[in-house]
Task: structure prediction
Amino acid sequence: MSFVVYNTLSREKEPFVPLDAGHVRLYVCGPTVYDYVHIGNARPVVAFDVLYRLLRRRYRRVTYVRNITDIDDRIMVRAADNNESIEALTTRTADAYQGDMRRLGALAPDVEPRATEYVGEMVAMIERLVAKGHAYAAEGHVLFSVPSMGDYGRLSRRTRDELVAGARVEVAPYKKDPADFVLWKPSTERQPGWPSPWGRGRPGWHIECSAMSAKHLGETFDIHAGGLDLIFPHHENEIAQSRCTFGHALMAKYWMHNGFLNISGEKMSKSLGNFFTVHELLDQYPGEAIRLLLLSAHYRQPLDFTHDGLVQAKATLDRWYGALRGRDAPAASRVPQAVEDALSDDLNTPLAISAVHQLGDPADLRAGAQALGLLQHDAEAWFRWTPAGASGPSDAEIAAAIGARQAARQARDFKAADRIRDDLKAKGVVLEDGPTGTTWKRG
Ligand code: AMP
Ligand code: ZN
Result:
């Protein structure tokens, strides 16, 4: 079955045909690293991880680039508040981000470029834009000239009035047109800055992704993805910069955007303060439960976050892992057809999940779930998971108690054996005797 994707550029589902069948190239906008990310930020990571897994099953070579934005005014403010260096802050938070995403079962991208390492490429692009009349310098800034691009606005389909209003531009006397946007801005002595033909300064946000994607994927590539809020202005401006620099009709052939993760019907966001960080949720729920919740709605639909949703997701995984227990098998070499078909239809993960529910054979169950990045653990290890700070016996203590119970039974001291079992039960650990020995689970 051919892979069909909804392309924001055409507002239609289209068959996916890569520019180069031998090498598929994917770019996803990553986070700005100044704090732990919230679970809304994890939605694109998890959704497009399912995409990456699908592409890797179908194409010999896939290059997935997801950037880390480590230059931003929010970073400067937070570093000052914390009384730490910008580098210390961005290194610490980028490490935490990577660790949290790994615990959500997301594969590492092939390249994870950090903006500060590509300032030279950004300056070179801006110079080309100036030389071609698409950008101009004014008062230490360099601005992209929106009227210089005939078909600016194709992705977001905004009218000129909407563009100007949506740009939420602070009135800046150096702008020739209110829709023009910043490519480069000056830095004060105390702000981070790099030398440039326009003086010491730093890049605007949009130019970062244009430079990093061109460097690692080429001037035109297959898929560019991110959250819905990035369509305008971020992606529109990336397109303007890349197309005007390189002179191509396309920056990326397909544009994919995930819907919002909401909380009580409102977009989860740092600025509203209605967020849960992935880091804190991972103390209370296993990573796969968070992942399953994120995949329970189609990626383009809104998804309401609730703790109850996470409890239900964990219960589903308990059931699946329970089915593997004692009859575990490596994943089948092929993803079951019903799961593959669902994912081939614009990543229909809710349909894929219901297909996984139908799989009886443990090898198929694992293979189907693993296409979603689920059932990655050993079943016994899954049932050993405990929330952070939970009291109760450690794994080693449980193993020792099971050994002692075994010894008591061999000595035919069934009273002692039962006492050990009841004692564990009182501490929240349930023993199950099966043909291959005694297994246990918490809760
Ligand atoms: P930011 O660091 O704000 O640029 O966000 C990083 C990524 O998370 C972008 O792709 C955003 O579109 C996405 N994102 C932010 N908030 C949400 C949300 N509530 N639901 C889904 N995606 C989000
Ligand atoms: Zn971007």
About this structure: Residues 29, 209, 234, 238 surround zinc ion (ligand 2) (CB under 6 Å). The chain has a mean pLDDT of 95. Residues 135 and 144 are 4 Å apart (CA to CA). The radius of gyration is 26 Å.
